[in-house]
Amino acid sequence: MPVKKTKTTTVLLIVFRLIPRFIRKALFISVFCLFYLLDVRTRLIAWHNLQRAFPEKTIEEITKLSRAVYRHFAIVAAEFFDIPYLTKDNVHQWGDVEGLEHYHEAIAKGKGVLSIVAHFGNWELLPMGIPIYAKPIYIVYRPLDNRIVDNMVEYVRTLRGNVLIPKGGSGKRIMELLKRNEIIGILSDQNVSVQEGVFVEFFGRPACTSVGLAVMAMRSGAPVLAIFPARQKSGRYKVILKPPMEAVVTGDDEKDLVVNTQRFTKVIEDIIREYPEQWFWFHQRWKTKPWQKERT
After folding, report:
1. Domain containing 192: what range?
2. In the chain, what's the furthest Cα-to-Cα distance?
3. Which pLDDT tens digit goes with each residue over 24-81?
4. How many domains does the chain have?
């Protein structure tokens, strides 16, 4: 059963859906361009992150790329109102899937599948698309700060039978689900506190990264499958499934957590380098500093 939608969610989904997609995209692009000009703090965060991640680029290139990031997410926001209507019959209109055989290889092991998902491309396509090509998934999530947006996102994510698992204290349930050969979706590209993660290299800088995915993979033996919906120049998407990864388990848990988290993070970095305008550069990914760990 999908999450119950509020009246506000119902109205927003209907109203924006009634606006033709090309007009809606133009509207959202205009609004995001305005945000780019007026929200100096967020623009500087994105600009600074891009400059540090791509030191070889000129200021002009970084500025152009930062504008492209805003444009991309304006389109993602505009497309959101069409996603509830994605079905088996029309999914081909959105794009193609590359590497579906990797999913079949992973699920055939019978240990469940842990999926690496990032705030990349149009990641909201995955909760609708995965049940069409595979089966419903269990999504580990943290509620959004805005209640209206949160209800709308939760409702859409659960339309195809997916189940949301609150982030805190979900480890035991995830292990049980993996034993049932279920698919677990985990967003793995956000900053966490020193108590929740380890520092690994991300674009040449130490980024505090959650160890949850590595812990689950090491304990369960479940293969880890990275899934990235990358927008193409045509406007359609190519949903890329990478070959399944097995966790490294040597008996040194502390070292293995770092090694595996680094491997999973590297997969995310590689796809971002290929499509740099399609990642959430507004996020303060490097907010937690290594010196904070020394104080704990």
Report:
1. 88-295
2. 57
3. 999 999 999 999 999 999 999 999 999 999 999 999 999 999 999 999 999 999 999 9
4. 1
